Amino acid sequence: MNSFLYSSLNPCDRLKTLLLVGSLLTLTSCQAVSSNAQTPNLASAARTLTVSGTGTVNIPTTLTFVRLGVEIQGKTAQDVQQQVAKRSQMVVELLKSRKVEKLETTGISLTPNYTYTDGKQRINGYTGTNTVSFRIDTDKSGTLLDEAINAGATRIDGVSFVASDHAIAQAQQQAIQKAADDAKKQADAALRSLNLNQREVMGIQINGANPPQPIIYPAVANMPKAATEQAADTPVVGGEQKVQQSVTLQIRY
Fold first, then answer.
1. In which domain of life is the source organism classified (predicted)?
2. H, E, C per residue of 172-241
3. pLDDT of res. 235
4. How far is CA 38 from CA 25, 28, 33, 45, in A?
């Protein structure tokens, strides 16, 4: 700034001039810093590889879920209901005496049966049902099915096989370990083929997996009581259940 012009200003104008010059210098400094901050440092940017692995463990099924019940047909609703109640009570008492798990009633119904004559609908009887479900050790289920039929059950709606909760939990841990190993091996193979080296794991994600589905078998055909009394013991053989997990790794190289 010209010293002559500055000295000729009065004190008030000198102060204003100094403030204006200071503001201009501050603005110029801030712009320089902002420009430097927006310039990316590509050399320091982290290079990462994301890879997912899966792990599968097969475990034996040791428990059987059974759905069975009583179905009765008769002329009157009252008679049908009484017979269903009587037989169902005998079946439930048997199941309780065998200490089955998760015993519960899954359905009760009483419906009329119709016939059609000359275009007219008439009730010619009723059908009543009472069904229950329960869980038992697979090695005991065949004998219990035969006993339930002899006690009054007239239908077996189906069976499904599952592993115990403890076995499933252990298998999930093993599957997670296998999935992590699988992801790491994939990352090693990819980086090695590109002549790169793995440095560290930046992130780990255990992907949620659905619980293993039970092995379901179709319903067993209903059999008259007299026929089941003469039949051989019902064989029930479980299978294997698949437990699967996946793990995603983010690896810096």
1. Bacteria
2. HHHHHHHHHHHHHHHHHHHHHHCCCCCCEEEEEEEECCCCCCCEEECCECCCCHHHHHHCCCCCCCCCEE
3. 74
4. 21, 16, 9, 14
- 102 and 19 assigned to the same domain: no
Average pLDDT taken over every residue of the chain: 82
Predicted structure pTM score: 0.62
Residues 128 and 221 in one domain: yes
Domain residues for the domain of 123 are 61-162+214-240
Whether the predicted pLDDT of 104 surpasses 90: yes
The model's pLDDT over 223-242, given as tens digits with 9 standing for 90+, comes to 444 444 444 567 777 788 99
Quick one: 112 and 16 in the same domain?
no
Q: Indicate the number of domains in the chain.
A: 2
Residues 138 and 232 in one domain: yes
